[in-house]
Amino acid sequence: MRLFLVLTFFGVLSLGVGILTAGDDQDVDWLIAGGLFGLALAGEGARQWLRRDRAKSRESTGF
């Protein structure tokens, strides 16, 4: 649920930035919007990976 909310928020935010940075000839600057959303995806993926990695290291304490 949290992942869906975060990605929805960043999707809307990146789309808004894409609209604001578009010139008069375009509706949306898709390159900027897609790049920002890609950064959000990468950040959430890294967060999930680090969280899973920490959980694994707690399980294998050797006791």
TrEMBL record:
Record key words, sorted = Membrane, Transmembrane, Transmembrane helix
Transmembrane intervals: 32-50
Q: Does the keyword Transmembrane helix apply?
A: yes
Q: Report the protein name in the record.
A: Uncharacterized protein
**Species assigned in the record:** Kribbella steppae
